[in-house]
Every structure is written in C-alpha cells, then in structure tokens.
C-alpha cells in the first residue's frame, strides 16, 4: 500500500471517536440479537425453543440439552464478538488483521511470558474473588446473587462431561473460540480505539479490562476478571501481537476446562469453583511477580522492536 496513505480519512476514522464507539456497541448488540436469534431458530427446530429456554434457566435439570446450548453459545459468540471485531477493524484499516495486530511472526518468548503471567496471577485472582464475593449491592444484591448462581449452574453443566469428545468440544468452545473472539474484540479493537482517544496505554488497558469484566455480567467476580483483563491488556501492548494474547488466554481457559474434567470424573480433588481463604504471602508474591514480569515484558519488547 502507498506509504502516503492517509489512515485518518479511511472509512470511519474521519468520524469522531464517540461515533465510532457507538458504531462498535451497536454492531455488537445487533450481531448478538441476530446470531442468537438464528441459533435459536436453527437449534429450536430440532430441540424445541421452549426446551432450550428451560435448559438455560435450569441447566442442571436439563443436561440432555447442554450440547445444543453449547452450539448456541458458539454461534452467537462468533457472530457478536468475532465478526463484529473483524467488521470494525476492517472499517479502521483496509486489512482488519493489521488493525488487530495479528502478525504471523509470533514471538515464542512473549508467548511464554504470557502463559507465565496467567499462571502467577492465580493467587491474586483467588484473593480478590474471595473478597469480591463478600461485597453487597444493596437493593440489587439478591438479583445479582441469583444471577450468579444461575451462571454457576450453567458453567457446571457445561463442564460436567465424561468423554474425551466432550472434553475436546469444551476446549474448543471455552478455550479456543472464546480466546480468539474476546481478544479480537476487547484488546484488538476496543483497547486500540481507547488508546486513540486517550493517548495513554494504561488508561486504555484499565477501561478495556473493566468493560471486559462487565460484559460477562458476573459482578461477584468482577474484580478478579478485571485484573485478568489488565494482565491481558499489558500483554497485548508489549507483545505487539494479538496471537500472543490468544495463546495465553487459551492456556488459561483450556487448563480450567481440563481440571474441571478431571474433577467431575473423580481424577482430582481440585475444585476450580471453590474459593479458598486468602493466603496473603502467596497473594503479595503473586502481585509483585506480575508487576515485575509486565515491566520485564516491556523492556524485552523494546529490545525486540515489537513496540
């Protein structure tokens, strides 16, 4: 492409950022409604829409419909998150993968740091989860806790599989697809757009992480999920390649799916849903190591000319 190409006047770039944010939000919401509707129509024709609705409301009592619910989630997550991200990225750059920074030359050193970052974050995540669950939300507290229990039941129904085929399907949906579409939308599009607005990577990372956590609609786990989003945000900023994020995000999700499989098949006593009382030594060590590793990633990225 011509080196004199004016990015600022390409498609939506010439419009105010507020308008671009509205377009992003509208695209995601419209895609969610369309693809969820298509999913319900297609799967409802086979299983019955009422049965699918009942399975989503009471998943543990309707385990026979869980594969259909998984396909439904696969359809609308790809549509609402993945395709929306590619569409907006394509309106920002002629090649959407350029805007997302999906570079072929992935640096394995950065991938390693990303996976380590996800791992050492666990004690800090556990502690923040422990205290987040004790926060009360006034008049909305019962509503949030009821919604949280319903989401927990759906997660248990998703993860409670007893065959290798079921495990691989969960790794594909929860591990790979979720990692790709969420990183495309939140880090690849939203964080980049926020950085255009604020010209401050730290502000962009924290706002993106907060929205990343909020969209999951699980407020009793809002803080730990936001912290995970912050780690992913710095990882994206300093690796310069969204594939690094996808690899680390996949590792985090897939490892939880595998551990859940072992738990539900009586191969381990490690219950990922059980929140342990805080170990403050481990928590402090986790926080310090995360900060040190993020700083180290920044220095390494500068040396490797990745940012």
Fill in the keyword field for this structure.
2 domains; mainly alpha; about 300 residues
The overall average pLDDT, rounded, is 92
Q: What would you call the shape?
A: globular
Please work out how many helical segments DSSP would assign: 12
**Rg calc:** 20 Å
| Spans where pLDDT lies below 50 across 5 or more residues | none
Question: What is the number of strand segments?
Answer: 0
Work out the count of structural domains.
Answer: 2
Helix content: over 70%
Helix and strand element order: HHHHHHHHHHHH
- Content-based structural category: mainly alpha
Mind describing the biggest β-sheet? none
Question: Topology, please?
Answer:
Elements: H1 17-47, H2 49-57, H3 66-92, H4 96-100, H5 108-120, H6 122-132, H7 141-159, H8 164-198, H9 201-214, H10 222-239, H11 242-264, H12 280-303
Helix pairs in contact: 1-2, 1-3, 1-8, 3-8, 5-10, 5-11, 5-12, 6-10, 6-12, 8-9, 8-11, 9-10, 10-11, 10-12
Question: Care to describe what's here?
Answer:
By secondary structure, this protein is mostly helical. Helix content is 75%, strand content 0%. It is globular and about 55 Å long. The protein has twelve helices and no strands. The protein folds into two domains: 1-100, no CATH class; 106-307, no CATH class. It starts with 16 loop residues before the first helix and ends with a helix. Helix 1 (17-47) packs antiparallel against helix 3 and helix 6 (122-132) runs antiparallel to helix 10 (222-239). The longest helix has 35 residues, at 164-198.
